[in-house]
Amino acid sequence: MARTKTVRRTARTQKPGALGSEAPPTIDAREFAQRRDRVLKALDGSVGLVLAGDADPNLHHPFQAHAHFHYLTGMSDEPGAALLLDPRNPNPARRVQLFLRPLNPEREKWDGFRHEIGSELRERAGIATIFRSNMLSMQLLDAARRARALSLLMPLATHTSPVSGDLEIFRRVCERVPGCGIVDRSQLLATMRARKSDAEVACIEHAGRITGLGFHVAMATLRPGMNEFDLQRNVEEAYREGGARDLAFRTIAGGGFNSTVLHYHANDQPLEAGELVCLDSGAKWCGYSADVTRTLPVSGRFDARQREIYELVLRAQEAAIRACRPGRRLHEIDEAGRDVIRKAGFVDAFPHGMGHHLGLETHDATPDEPVAEGAVITIEPGIYLPLERIGIRIEDDVLVTKRGPRVLTSHIPKSVSDIERLMRR
Predict the structure, then answer these.
(1) How many angstroms separate the CA atoms of 189 and 361, rounded?
(2) Is the same domain home to 85 and 122?
(3) Are residues 175 and 232 in the same domain?
(4) Domain range for residue 52?
(5) What pLDDT, on a 0 to 100 scale, did the predictor assign at position 7?
(6) Which residues pair with 253 in a beta bridge?
(7) Prediction pTM value
């Protein structure tokens, strides 16, 4: 506890976007229950199935539950789990059923202890009915026989990929239940997830504050001769000191020519005096991501050409942010910023989109509808000139409200003067 207080005190006195002394935000169990109730109502009597996904059997990568499953349960550490939604079940306590893998004491000596099904586990999950996964087939058969309609809730797959897990299961169920059909409601959870609650916004904003600690350290420590990895390490260590356990994505720290590579990840080259470094990074908090990009002068000052391009990208970002209003579509927001770059003659140097939804995933679920009030989206225009070794991207996380856009990462300096002033200090 003393160590945590020390980190926070340092953050308040020395770094912008300080974390403060209040308890960090979380998602309350009641909110997960409310989400499940909304899905039950939207299913209109049909059956839904949401799958957590399976872990890497070789343990090469940490398990991360599918975001839909996390969104409805808050659980991220149960590979093989499933959530059955059965709104026609005559027993209200069984309209939501959670299925977890059977206990395996031998395996758990390696992978970690798991709780037996009982009141403690039910209270932790906030779900009254919990079975082991070997009971899913019987409970799903009972639900399908009663409803005769199965709703797809997991994202649909392209024809070159395996079908979604719920569709694969439902096809087999329909072969065994006469008159049972499959309904596409794969946009339901995407639409729900796109509109963030106050608690979700607080978690994203907290992730942004932690991210701000890393960017402050980047600006304070950046020097010619550093390796790109040194910069990455400094940023990510600041995240950990701020309380983040996970990154939102792999940090991009590309200097010189590498700043023009959109998803550059090697981060193994020296940073040269007089060049720029594009730093794209973000921390996670309580499962929610921040996603920020700043382009910094390695020597602490932008030259005239770098400043010209930088301020053009900043004007494009500001135009796109102003366009972030409820009811706008992403392509309309994109066009508002892209038009600034087009008129300046650099449209071909801006090859990617203006931004994306942000939440449990860095590229979060995106429904087929206009941007809703409560959505959080990134705005990230860029101009990339490989022959000049100049790549500039500026990215912030923006909450869409009725009163206008609110930039959740505005505490991270981005004007030329603010960056240069901080780097001088």
Answers:
(1) 13
(2) yes
(3) no
(4) 44-184
(5) 33
(6) 279
(7) 0.93
CATH number of the domain enclosing 356? 3.90.230.10
Q: What is the pLDDT of residues 103-159, one digit of tens each?
A: 988 888 888 888 899 999 999 999 999 999 999 999 999 999 999 999 999 999 999
Instruction: Mark whether 158 and 206 lie in a shared domain.
Output: no
In whole angstroms, give the CA distance from residue 12 to residue 9: 5
* CA 46 to each of CA 91, 121, 139, 181: distance values in angstroms, whole numbers, following the listed order: 16, 27, 14, 10
Shortest CA distance to 250 belongs to which of 261, 236, 260, 271?
236
What's the confidence (pLDDT) of residue 407? 98
Say yes or no to pLDDT of 6 above 50: no
Query: What is the Cα–Cα distance from 414 to 219, expressed in whole angstroms?
Result: 11
How many domains are contained in the chain? 2
Q: Is the pLDDT of residue 16 over 70?
A: no
Determine the pLDDT at residue 107. 83
User: Please, where are the H alpha helices in 246-329?
Assistant: 304-322
Please report whether residue 355 resides in a domain: yes
Between CA 169 and CA 101 the distance in angstroms is 17
Does residue 71 sit in the same domain as residue 212? no
Q: Give percent of the chain above pLDDT 70.
A: 95
Task: Residue 119: give its domain's CATH number.
Answer: 3.40.350.10
63 compared with 254, residue with greater pLDDT: 254
Residues belonging to the chain = 425
Residue (of 176, 396, 365, 375) closest to 294 by Cα position: 396
Averaged pLDDT for residues 240-252: 97
52, 144: one domain: yes
Is residue 286 within 8 Å of residue 26, measured between CB atoms?
A: yes
Helices (H), 344-402: none
